[in-house]
Fold:
Amino acid sequence: MTVSRALNTPQLVRPKTVEKVMQAVRATGYIPNALAGGLASRRSKLIAVVVPQINNNMFVDTIQSLSDELAERGYHILLCVSGYTPQTEAELVATLLSRRPDGVVLTGIHHTAGMKKVILNAAIPVVEIWDLTPTPIDMLVGFSHEKVGQAVADYLLKKGYRRPGLLWTADRRAGQRKQGLCDALRRHGIAADAQIDVPLPASLALGRSGLAQLLAERTFDVIVCSSDTLAQGAIMEAESRGLCVPQELAVIGFGDLDFAASNRPAITTISVDRRAIGQRAATLLADRIEQIPREDDIIDVGFHLVERESA
Structure:
């Protein structure tokens, strides 16, 4: 019983006793049988996490904080990458649920009807992240992409930019930001109809080639990008053509990635607390699993525009 408590709930055991148990574990090479423990407790201590990609700093920071927070509560993540296709996500979730996780984290709020049915039938806690809706599957931590687009439009209008070009990836959340931006500009008589779509994942090279395609069509006073990575590439391409940023061409990104403030010129962007998304999602899940009452099943982490040199 003491060994069991030391391994499963060490916070309830005296530190010296825990250390003696761990010495024995190290000496014998003992590995706890998680399957047997799960049968006894009806918990696997696994949290299934589905993200579209991991070669993206925004998701990496969220995954890391999610993993760190869950580890402190005694849980571990089982990570899968779905790309940006709902059908792949549905197949992955079905496979993950066969592992009997204690909870699931999904990226976004748009899923196939079949996947939603499978999730609801599983009757386990679910947190959707990186998006916002009043009607999540279960719980949600995110922000409004439409409002991000509106905020960028307000900034462009305040600064006097009237000839925008868009450099954009074709994922759904980026599309929501673009829609919010275009709708807000249209209400002021500005058509953001010059647009280049680039494939995922975003890269510096795509930022450079995308701007080159835009500039082949017409001149602009500002380029709005769906990510800081594309913005950085656009700045490099502009300067290679002798265009001074922002005097001759302003550039705006999204994400406030680690390099954005250190870039020269520093990138004007939208900042989202990526780590807070992971931390709060982990807390929601762990509290639900452990039946700790909560009132905030929907958390809007918000965002803010960071004005820097590039615009």
About this structure: The radius of gyration is 23 Å. The chain has a mean pLDDT of 92.
